[in-house]
Write a structure and sequence with these properties.
Elements: H1 3-28, H2 38-53, H3 57-64
Helix pairs in contact: 1-2
């Protein structure tokens, strides 16, 4: 594995750890429910962010003009 790939993996691991720690802090401060699994929430947040960055162009158009919630799907 080349050095760039190793750095990308390390950055992803660091981001994962930082997010889990932030969720743990929220739990300890009483801002997030105690029965929340920090790893599970981190995975869900990562998937949501990935979905936003890979959003379909037609959704992105509505999202950027602020009309995403006003779409009539019928």
């Amino acid at each position: 594995m080349n050095e760039v790939a190793k750095e990308i993996i390390k950055l992803r691991q660091d981001t994962f750890t930082i997010t889990c720690n932030a969720i743990n802090s929220g739990i300890n401060e009483g801002l997030i429910r105690r029965d929340t699994d920090p790893v599970e929430v981190t995975v869900f947040l990562t998937l949501i962010i990935k979905g936003l960055t890979e959003m379909r162009p037609d959704f992105k158009k509505y999202w950027t003009i602020g009309k995403f919630l006003n779409i009539n799907f019928s």
